[in-house]
Structures are given as structure tokens and as C-alpha cells.
């Protein structure tokens, strides 16, 4: 078992100040980005899980079309939560699975970390599309983001089901209502998440690339 040396606690996150699901996610990832910047280049698992746990609420706001993503994402975050009982950092997980030749093995912590990273990137890509035009609907944003981030890793049957489910996505007005926010505030929070999540996503990618593990899986 890895020695616990992380001084982080959930009280360091400003969760109490967050009034909407989107603000909660944004503030958690801004704090996570600050922790990464102030660390020695390693990210502790528990604060990472804490921040990631908020993202499932955003998947929930998208309704049936992204139920598959919500279920898969939550299961992977839960697995990493269990892993935090044994491993202190994300790097520890990769080191263990590299040693045991199980990085890509279904159910391994390293594989699940890769899937969580894809979930974070999916939300970021959706926000980028949503902000690209005032006329961009959640359906258009989600369809484009899914095609970019997730579709390359999914079977034809899953892609087909997701495509059919896109018709059930909420309208722009309905999404704002679910997020308990108004248009200008949502756009501001989306931009904050994009900026805060970028270094986290890049850090996870570099964990694999630094060990000569490709990202095409």
C-alpha cells in the first residue's frame, strides 16, 4: 500500500459556495488545477476523484442521450475511488499497471482512468462547441463533441444508439433551466471549466505518453 502523504482535504474545495451544478464542477477543477500547479508534478488521487465526481451531474442534465456516458463515467470514477485506498497518486496507478502489464486490460485502474479522462474531454468539447456560436443548440454541440471525442472508441451499435438518442437532448432553454442558471452565467462558467480542465487532461495524457503508451484506445 502506498504511503499516504497528501495534505489535501475536501474542505479545501469551495463546494459550499457553488450554487449550480456547473459552478460546482468549475470551482472543483479550478482548485484541482491549482493543486497540480503547486505540486511537484504529480496529482493526488483523492482530490482528482472529488472533482471528477461533480461531472456526473452535468451528464445527468443532458438526459437519456448521454445516460450511457453517465453510467460508464460514474462506474469508472467509483473504481478509482476504491483504488485511492491503495494508491496515493495517478502516477502510482500507471506504475502498478505497467509493472503488471495490465494498462489496457478491461477493468484495470489505468484503463478506467483513461475512460474518465475521455469523459472530462467530452464535456470540454461540448462546451467549446456550445460557445462557438449563439445559435449552437445542445444537440449540435453534443453531436459534434461525441463524434470528436468518443465515437472513435465505440462500436457501430453504440454510435447508432447515441445518434438516435441525440433527438432527446434538451433545448437551450431547457438546459439552462436544468443547470439552474442564465445564458451569460452559463457561458462564463463553461469558459472557466475549459481553462481549468485543460491542464488536467494534458497531465493525464502525459502520464501515458511518458511511458510510451499510445492514446488510441
From TrEMBL:
Q: Does the keyword Transport feature in the UniProt annotation?
A: yes
UniProt keywords, alphabetically = Transport
Similarity remark: Belongs to the GLTP family.
Checking Gene3D superfamilies in the record gives: Glycolipid transfer protein
Please give the Gene Ontology molecular function terms for this protein: ceramide 1-phosphate binding; ceramide 1-phosphate transfer activity
Q: Which InterPro entries match?
A: GLTP_sf (IPR036497), Glycolipid_transfer_prot_dom (IPR014830)
Organism equals Apostasia shenzhenica
What this protein is called in its record is: Glycolipid transfer protein domain-containing protein
Q: Which GO terms describe its cellular component?
A: cytosol; membrane
